[in-house]
Amino acid sequence: xxxxxxxxxxxxxxxxxxxxxxxxxxxxxxxxxxxxxxxxxxxxxxxxxxxxxxxxxxxxxxxxxxxxxxxxxxxxxxxxxxxxxxxxxxxxxxxxxxxxxxxxxxxxxxxxxxxxxxxxxxxxxxxxxxxxxxxxxxxxxxxxxxxxxxxxxxxxxxxxxxxxxxxxxxxxxxxxxxxxxxxxxxxxxxxxxxxxxxxxxxxxxxxxxxxxxxxxxxxxxxxxxxxxxxxxxxxxxxxxxxxxxxxxxxxxxxxxxxxxxxxxxxxxxxxxxxxxxxxxxxxxxxxxxxxxxxxxxxxxxxxxxxxxxxxxxxxxxxxxxxxxxxxxxxxxxxxxxxxxxxxxxxxxxxxxxxxxxxxxxxxxxxxxxxxxxxxxxxxxxxxxxxxxxxxxxxxxxxxxxxxxxxxxxxxxxxxxxxxxxxxxxxxxxxxxxxxxxxxxxxxxxxxxxxxxxxxxxxxxxxxxxxxxxxxxxxx
Length: 475
Prior knowledge:
Number of strands: 11
Mean pLDDT: 91
Helix content: 40-55%
């Protein structure tokens, strides 16, 4: 929206739609350009856009407009659900299944042939599909259409074929009562134009695989896709390990920290043990002082590894922007585990679901995430940490309740993020082959925002068959 006091108030679902009006300023918001060039700054706030004097209304907020002012207030906030009382472990699992199925069923609304699901090969979307296909059976509906991004087997190296994410994608598609569609990086040239342009926000262009799946589903008559995007925040264990240490349950805490390190492929658990011990033992006042120093170091590293020009970063005051961004996230220890869960999930689901919704809408689709259903979030806020982390395995309650429903390869996979890279790489290479992406064009469009030396090095690496991510991001 754009508001000129005592003159005009205009609004639309897309910031660019307002620019057709001559009364609305058409000026770039350089701070947001800086946020884009340093990807860690995407969540600087939930109000600014890439245009000066055009603002977003954040999710869960309402605006009251008068001639002289726009007053934005919060009307919806994530809060813990009711206390669950004394329950056995089986009771917790049964309660979770109940709210999970209700969340999925609510998102299967509409003609059955127009609703499908993403299927990444991980626990989040895999669990959604495992229950969704059974719910459809009870309604008398046919197989559930699923959409997965994966490389073709004959294009993978021997090492790539062993990657757990590749194996679990193929394993997940063996489930009964689904109609799987595999989307491969080498076939997205048919979607080149929408995958390389027309994004409401530049941030959206980074998620090539996501839009490719939406476009493919739309071409098959699907209009809504379930996804597991919220699983990482709804199923996260939060400060569970720190709380174990603080409560004196040292043996369990240490064994879990060692197991967690093993899960993430760290051969030496000592750094993790020391980190958790510091978090548990140090008072907040000392941690805040250490955090300030660490944040300054983080910002310097972010700037160094990004494409942003140092003079531009200094002009828009990136360190101050980082501090303001951190205000979105909770910084203090909360003795209430359930409230900590809600405080943590709120910024993640706000920023993440905005992007999902924008990309889906641009493809004529609707994104539906059962993990962010109010009932499920409230229930998960009260789940003890042992149902989110056990023997080093995260999201353990999902692994428990999908026994016999999901292939074992999926239930016990250790994922390696690599598949999305191949889709971005394909679009970048195709753009270069078509002559639409050149170093000269990048330098011209990003001057004076990008560091020309870093941009040249990124381009040389890309041309030499190396990492295409920085070039794709800049493109």
